[in-house]
Amino acid sequence: MPDQQNKLKKSDWIKVVLSVLAAFFGVQSRSNYKRDFSSNSYWPYIFAGLVLMLVFIASVYLLVRFALAYL
Amino acid sequence: MKRVIFGLAVLLVTASPSHADWTMNLTRGVTDISREIYDLHMVIFWICVVIGVLVFGVMLWSVVYHRKSRGAKAKNFHESLLVEITWTIVPFIILIGMAVPATATLIKMYDNTEADIDIQVTGYQWKWRYQYLAENVDFFSSLSTPREQINNTQEKTTDYLLEVDNPLVIPVGKKVRFLLTANDVIHSWWVPEFAVKKDAIPGFINEAWVIVDKPGVYRGQCAELCGKEHGFMPIVVEVKTVAEYESWLAEVKQADAKQQQAAMKSWNLADLMAMGEEVYNKACLACHQAEGEGIPGAFPALKNSPVALGEVSVHIDVVLNGKPGTAMQAYKEQLSAVELAAVITYERNAWGNKTGDIVTPAQIAELKE
Amino acid sequence: MTSSSASTHHHGPAVGLSRWLYTTNHKDIGTLYLWFSFAMFLTGGCMALLIRAELFQPGLQLIQPDFFNQMTTMHGLIMVFGAVMPAFVGLANWMIPMMVGAPDMALPRMNNWSFWILPFAFSMMLSTLFMEGGAPNFGWTFYAPLSTTYAPPSVTFFIFAVHMMGISSIMGAINIIATILNLRAPGMSMMKLPLFVWTWLITAFLLIAVMPVLAGVVTMMLMDIHFGTSFFNAAGGGDPVLFQHVFWFFGHPEVYIMILPAFGIVSEIIPTFARKRLFGYPSMVYATASIALLSFIVWAHHMFTVGLPLVAEVFFMFATMLIAVPTGVKVFNWVATMFRGSMTFETPMLFALAFVVLFTIGGFSGLMLAIAPADFQYHDTYFVVAHFHYVLVPGAVFAIMAGAYYWLPKWCGNYYNETMGKVHFWCSFVGVNITFFPMHFIGLAGMPRRIPDYALQFADFNAVATVGAFMFGFSQLIFLYNVIHCIRKGRQASSEVWEGSHGLEWTLPSPAPYHSFSEAPKVK
Q: Is residue C475 annotated as a catalytic residue, yes or no?
């Protein structure tokens, strides 16, 4: 439900981002994932996941640039 | 049957690396890059072995000791944040340790600058063409293993399928740059001892380079599926001392001049037919088959074909310039005037194609100008 | 199966051929998928045996190079699209509704259609073997321009067949997603889903994302062949390497499409026979999702030798190495599940254990291949052949067999013959390793893949591999016999089937009734 998004507070977004990062990493504490899976909407997670995926690709690219410059 | 038993028996002793005939590992090769790659290969291999021993060790331990028949009772743990974080981070650190030297080697491999010699390598179905760009030396290199060995009517020799008529020759200790491209489909030029493998792509030029420290003969094969005879287009590189390389260059140039003179002499039908058969077997047989019967749907027959029985000029045009959009290549550059005249004459007079036409080398030489 | 007289809606299957043609029942369609994939497995297997027989000795003995290339191409296509993928869809059809507590798949008529496209697609593809010019002979990766300008005329039929397979896969994937997201029983929250369901959910998204890419690339081929475009023809301004980029953008996620459901099956089986809950369930889910996302940014590691710029080379090397992390997590979790469990070793467990070990070996060689400089030596050699056969045969295929043995008593109400199952396992296990392990050596020693004849120094290991291939191939007939035997008679199975089984599917009687969960079960 997209209207749910508007209601998310700043601190909630930080939690979403942290959860998505934990998902990328592959490990999440039980209490956190219980909280995540009891939230009303999955859209914030999908949105954050897509954005962070792009950030991830960009950071691998920067890492490559860095490696080529200093090796 | 003998082979089956032999195979099974030998399988049991493959674990011992002392068995010399059973090459099991990557070659160390004869260049700095190939040795670096070998070292990377061995490092990552041993990392895998260590991880494997640990993981499979724990698994084997559980399989042996935590089995129900031994009275093992299942514990109830099913998560642990600490353990999970550890076994995510540790492999990550190992991978970083691997990525650093690998990237360093890759940077060296990509340094194509300051070459002493440039050679253009062109892949054809199914042979290689080598052009020494500064030297006006240009030749084709194709498989020289006789068909009889492939078809098992003759004993196979040591270099079976890894021998060619005209090997590539390069000098030792010089930086040789290869400019790779292809004429028809994608090929891949690979010599394991140089650790050079680069795709030869039609319409594009790739670069690779090598500095070989040891004279010798090094063999490789085409590594990208390129059609029917993909398994039959080897690469042979002779690495010579600089002096030997220079004299080889002179010889090749002399031989070229001689060949051009031969076109001017007059040839009779019997000589052309004899030579034509030889050329046919080398250049045409793979597709058009031994009796000129072709392969229906893939390669047209020459026996009783409208081209071989029709107008001579059309026949010459097809052989010299090829047929765009099909597997028929242009042979203008690949064969000498004498060879072209001979093979066209042969195709017009063999297998019951009795046109009686003679195509003279002089005629072809004129067209080749 | 007698229908309850009280309800006119609850009826058993129709009789005869029409039952199978018109069925919309997820169990029937699952059965069709599984038999179809087994038939394709044997067909592709016969081709593999022909290839191995030709490679038994140096020299050309049985088949000529052009036919050899047709065999390698058809073997690859049939095994990937005809055997492994439909087998997973078949297992999904059977198990997902029962696992989530749904009465059937969400879109039963589309389900029927997505299956019945397949026999036609594969008949068309196999018919190319009898056409003038022969079947496709350019390898299952069909690189242009070998597959366009230089292809046999039958390539057009191949393109049409690939389109049909793609449509079938996409519809299957839509159906699976719709079922999992909409038809879960009350109380079956996402994080309670069995792992097989989770891995299939993620796989289905991968399928929807990449099958259109495959369709796109074959359509571009079609245009190049028949309508004068030059996507892959440098002379017309195109680029042959573009083909490889587009193909592998499909091809790499495809690799995970073939392995993620296998992870799911193994994650079901190991806890059952270790009598212990799966270790790290959430991290298993997360790792699956991570692998799926990463699979979209690693495609060019199949193309390290095409002359990519250095930046791209390093980028794809790093990204590929990263995949080792979530994959490693999975293996560690399985091992931790077994640790301090109470294990028994029935046939499904044996296959699952072999999967863990042999798939990991395939993962190791994959890690080696990820090191770009070393890949210049490995690329297009038998080392690669060894690698992907290790992840696909003792990987995907062993997982499918493990799943078949594991759920067979639930499907037909009888246990399979355990002794015969174990014989099948050991023959397959030994056969697979004799076949594919020596390929590491011949690859490192320098034998290129896809060649019908080879230099003498490769002869000994090739002979060994051929012996192993025949052993593996013929031991599958034991499996066939065992399955038929199990369907006809066998020891009656209880509804739990296995002592340590957990989940909704084991609450149903064995055999599972034709219509199950007509009323949604309650999940605690």
A: no
